[in-house]
Design goal:
The chain has about 120 residues and is mainly alpha-helical. The protein has helices at about 5-15, 20-25, 55-65, 70-75, 80-95, 110-124, and strands at about 40-45, 70, 95-100. The longest helix has 13 residues, at about 80-95. This is DUF742 domain-containing protein.
């Protein structure tokens, strides 16, 4: 008795094989609505998990007590970013999480100005 083919199939399911990803996203490869979510979009929980939610949804809500990017959530869940985007779109639509754009680079202070201020303070 060889458990090779069965063992390999079970391993694919556990490691995020296509079957599991299909089930997790209910067969969707894109969000129902075109959500403006990219890898650097910050996600923050707005409510506690509700009973009957998918385990992946619950995990996202629990881990987003402080802002996390879509890429970080994908890494923590060991799921592809495309799958996480579908799950996040569901949670945003349900009002469970909030998506925030990252701070644009233009809003960051000018490095040269900071250096000039630092040198001025050192001369005092």
């Amino acid at each position: 008795m060889s458990d090779g083919p069965q063992h390999e199939g079970r391993k694919e399911w556990e490691e995020g094989g296509p079957e599991r990803l299909y089930v997790v996203t209910a067969g969707r490869s894109r969000p129902a609505e075109q959500a403006a979510l990219d890898l650097v979009t910050l996600i923050v929980s707005r409510s506690a998990p509700a009973s009957g939610m998918q385990p992946e949804h619950v995990a996202i809500i629990r881990m987003c007590n402080y802002p996390l990017s879509v890429a970080e959530i994908s890494a923590y869940l060991h799921l592809p970013a495309s799958t996480v985007t579908v799950l996040l779109a569901d949670l945003v639509e349900g009002g469970h999480v909030e998506a925030r754009a990252p701070i644009p680079a233009a809003a960051l202070p000018d490095v040269e100005l900071l250096e000039a201020v630092m040198h001025g303070l050192q001369r005092l």
